[in-house]
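Ticket #4471: structure output looks truncated?

Reporter: J.K.
Steps to reproduce: submitted the chain below (238 residues) through the standard prediction queue, then opened the result file.
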Amino acid sequence: MKKKLSKIFCLCLFSAGTVVMGQNKLKISLDAGYTYGVLNSDLSNLVDSRYTGRYGFGVNLSGEYMIWKSLFVSTGVSFQQKNYKFERTGSRDGWYTEYNNNFLTLPLMVGGYILNNPHETTGVWIKIAGGMYTDYWLSMKREGRYPVFNELQENGTFNYTQVSDKYDFKKNENQLNRWGYGLAGQAQLGYSFNKFDVYGSYNYQYGLSDINMANDDKDRKSTIRSYMISLGVSYKFK
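Returned output as attached by the reporter:
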């Protein structure tokens, strides 16, 4: 009797699992576009200095899994450039460093469709999502223009020299933190053609981790914020 009940129980679990899996739907998406990175750092100890944002390039490969009605979870992998610029101003104008940074990003978000559901209907749809991300600093290239202090001119200015190099993360002389994390947000507007979708996407990443491992002052940490606008295509598995 117990064996029969066990078999019936297992069969019921299998049937319920099959129904749930049948109701859940998967979508794979690929998009590419422009990024804009900003370094948020305290420069109160440096006069005539500031960080400004710079543009870059990014590619996102993501998977979306419907969990209940119009709600979904999504994850994936992204290649993103999070570039920024340090520059001197005022009497030190013309002295700068441009940072070209490549990151591998892994987001995990939960969201929902607020206008239509492309898994059920064709036409225009809108979705929003939010969650967390972690990223890995792949590489950094620096290009700058710096004064040559031993070449003081008669008018009190210095000659400048151009410098370009690639940061060596193996030596990591500046003790940069290659692993980071933060908050992620996303909004998409798309159009569904049965199994395929086309869409425009806006992604925002708010860094919470300090890029400097040696910094013990948590009130003066340096974090990266990035924005991305892209166009892409999706395939729905039905």
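Triage note (M.O.): checked the attachment and the full token line is present. The chain has one domain: 25-150+158-236.
Status: closed, working as intended.
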